[in-house]
Amino acid sequence: MRILFGGGIAGALAAMIYPAIKFLIPPEEPEAEPDILKVGRKEDFPAGTSKIFKFGRTPVILIHSKASGLLALSATCTHLDCLVQYRDDMGAIWCACHNGKYDLSGKNISGPPPRPLTPFAVKVIRDEIFIAKV
Amino acid sequence: MLAWLNERLGVEKALEWAKHKTVPVHRGTVFYYLGGVSLFLFILQVMSGILLLMYYRVGTDSSYESVRFITTKVDFGWLFRSLHSWTANLFVLFIFLHMFSVFFMKAYRKPRELTWMSGFVLFCLALAFGFSGYLLPWNELAFFATKVGTDIIGEVPGIGSWLLKIVRGGEDVTGATLSRLFGLHVAVLPGITTVMLVLHLAFVQIQGMSHGDQPEKGKTMPFFPNFLLRDMILWLITLNILAVLAVFFPWELGKKADVLASAPAGIKPEWYFLFTYQALKVIPGKILSIPGELVGILLFNLAGILWFLVPFWDAKIPEGKRNRVVNIVGLFAVLFILAMTIWGHWSS
Ligand code: HEM
Ligand code: FES
Questions:
Q1: Which of B154, B159, B161, B275 has the most CB atoms within 10 Å of its CB?
Q2: What pLDDT band is residue B324 in, cutting at 50, 70 and 90?
Q3: What pTM value is reported for the model?
Q4: Number of domains making up chain B
Q5: Is residue B70 a part of any domain in this protein?
Q6: Does B14 reside within a domain?
Q7: Is residue A23 part of a domain?
Q8: In a 3-state reduction of DSSP, which class is residue A128?
Q9: Domain boundaries, position A54
C-alpha cells in the first residue's frame, strides 16, 4: 500500500517536473552560419582601428594593425565571455573584464584567459573586405 | 473594538505574549538591530520595486528606454529608481553585517541551526536579487556583468552548459536572458524570499534571542515596547540616510547595452561581488592543468557550504567557552573579503 502510494506521488511529481524542465530549455534555433561575410570597404578600416561583427552567432573582431595588416579573430574572451578589444597602444588584444591579453595571432599571453581566440580568415576582393571561416 | 476583535481572534493572547517577549541586554545588544534593519530594507525594496513595475517594460528595445523614461519624465521617477538601487545596496550590506554578527555571537548553535540556515538562504536570495536586478536597465555594464556572472554557471562540471542555457534562455545573453532574470527578480525571488523570511522570523520567535557567550540569566529588556521603539527609531534613521543618498547621489543609468561593443575599460561589478571578481582575476589560467576559474569557483562553493553548515562542525563546546577555530575561520573570512574588495576597488 505504502509503496503504491509513494510511487503514485513520485510518478505524479515526475509527470509535472519533467515538462517544466523541458519547457525551461529553449528550443534550438538553427542559425545559418555563413561561410563568408562581407563587412565593408577597405577605406572604412584605417590602420589602428577595429570593429566587431556578427558572424552567424559568433562575434568576430576585425583588426587593422599597422604591423600585421588586416586580421580577424573570434571576439569572445575565452575566460568568461566578455568581448575583447584591440589596443593599438599595446599592439595586442585586451579584455577589460579581468585584464586578459592575447597577441595578434589570438594566443593568450597574460591574465586569466585559458585558451587562444579562434582565428578567422580575411579576404580582400577588389577593395571589399570579407570574413570567412578558416 | 478591542473586545470585538478579542472575541473573534483572541488578540489578548497575542498582547499577553508580546509583554513577555524579552531581549537580552549586554555589550552585544546593538547587533540585535541588524536583522530588523534588513527586514525594513526588504519591505522598502518591495514597495519601490512595485512602483517601478508600473512603468518598466522588459525587452531589449524597451528596458533601457523605460528606465530612462522613469528617471526623466515620470514625477519622482528618478527618486524611486535611485531609492530602489541604494536600498538594494544597503540591504545586501546589512545582511552581511547581520550574518557576521550572529556568526561571531555563535547564535547558530543548538537549537538555532535552522535559523542560521534559513538566514544563509536569505543571504543568497539577496545576492540573487542584486544580480538579477542589475541587468534590468539593460545597460553596458550590466550586460557584461551578466555575461561573466552567467558564464561562471556554465563552468559547473557536467551539467554546466545545460544550466547556462536555462539561465540565459539560449547560448548567449540576449533579450531572452533579460526576460528570465526579470521574471526571477519580480516574481520568483520575492515569493521564495517571503516564505523564507516568515520561516526565519518564526524560528527566532519560537526560540527567543540567544545570549551569545553571555551568562544565561543576564539583564533583559521587554521587546514591547522598549526594543520595538528603538527598532523604529533606527528604521527612521535608515530611511533618512537612504533619502539623502538617493537624492544627492542619484543612480546612474549609463550607456545602453550594445551586443557588438567591446567591454569598456575599468568595468567592475557591484561592490558585493568585488571580492569574488578580484579572486577570479588573480587566479592563474591553469592550476595543475585544471582551468583556474574552475578551481576558484569550486573553492568559493566549498567555503559557502562550510559556512552554511557551521552549526554542525563547530565543535560542541560548553556554553560560555570560546571556540578558537570558529573565531579564526570567521576572522579569516572577514579579512579575506575586506582585502579582496579593497584590492578589487583599487586595481585597474
Ligand atoms: C518584490 C520585490 C521587487 C520588485 C517588484 C523589484 C522590481 C524591480 C524593477 C522593475 C527594476 C527595474 C527598474 C530599474 O532598473 O530601476 C528593478 C531593478 C533593480 N532591483 Fe529590484 N525589485 C524588487 C526587489 C529587489 C530587492 C530585494 C533587491 C535587493 C537586493 C533588488 C535589487 C535591484 C537592483 C540592483 C536593480 C537595478 C537598479 C538599476 O540599476 O536601475 N530588487 N527592480
Ligand atoms: S572575461 Fe576576458 S579576461 Fe575575464
A1: B275
A2: confident
A3: 0.90
A4: 1
A5: yes
A6: no
A7: no
A8: strand
A9: 36-133
The CATH number given to whatever domain includes residue B254 is 1.20.810.10
Closest residue to A98, CB basis, from B165, B170, B280: B280
* Chain A interface residues (partner B, CB cutoff 8 A): 24-26, 29, 52-54, 57, 59, 61, 75, 77, 79-85, 95-99, 108, 111-114
- What is B291-341 written as a DSSP string? EHHHHHHHHHHHHHHHHHTHHHHS----TT---HHHHHHHHHHHHHHHHHH
Share of chain A above pLDDT 70, in %: 100
Please report whether residue A26 resides in a domain: no
- Please indicate whether, in this complex, the C-beta atoms of B172 and A57 are within 8 angstroms of each other: yes
Question: Which domain, by its residues, includes B130?
Answer: 19-346
Of B118, B266, B286, nearest to A115 (Cα)? Answer: B286
Residue type, B329: V
Q: Do A84 and B169 touch (CB under 8 A)?
A: no
Shortest Cα distance from A106 to chain B (angstroms)? 15
Say how many domains are in chain A. 1
Alpha-carbon gap: A84 to the closest alpha carbon of chain B (Å): 5
Q: Which of A26, A52, A108 is facing B170, going by the closest CB pair?
A: A26
Does A31 fall in a domain?
A: no
A10 belongs to a structural domain: no
Strand order in the sheet with A119-125: A36-41, A128-132, A119-125, A69-74, A58-65, A49-55
CA-to-CA separations, B290 to A98, A114, B130, B286, in angstroms, rounded: 19, 10, 30, 5
B8 in a structural domain: no
Tell me how far the alpha carbon of residue A99 lies from the centroid of ligand 2, in angstroms.
7
Grid coordinates given for B134: 542589475
Q: pLDDT of B6-28, one tens digit each?
A: 888 888 888 888 788 888 888 77
Mean pLDDT of the A95-114 span: 92
B126 belongs to a structural domain: yes
Asked if B148 lies within 8 A of A97 by C-beta distance, the reply is: yes
Task: Give the alpha-carbon dihedral of A51, A56, A59, A63, to 10 degrees.
Answer: -40
Chain-centroid distance of CA B53 in Å reads 21
Q: Looking at beta carbons, which residues of chain B come within 8 Å of A25?
A: 162, 165-166
CA of B41 to the centre of ligand 1 (A): 12
Say yes or no to pLDDT of B296 above 90: no
Residue A76 sits in a domain of what CATH number?
A: 2.102.10.10
Hey, what's the cell of A15?
A: 509527470
ipTM: 0.88
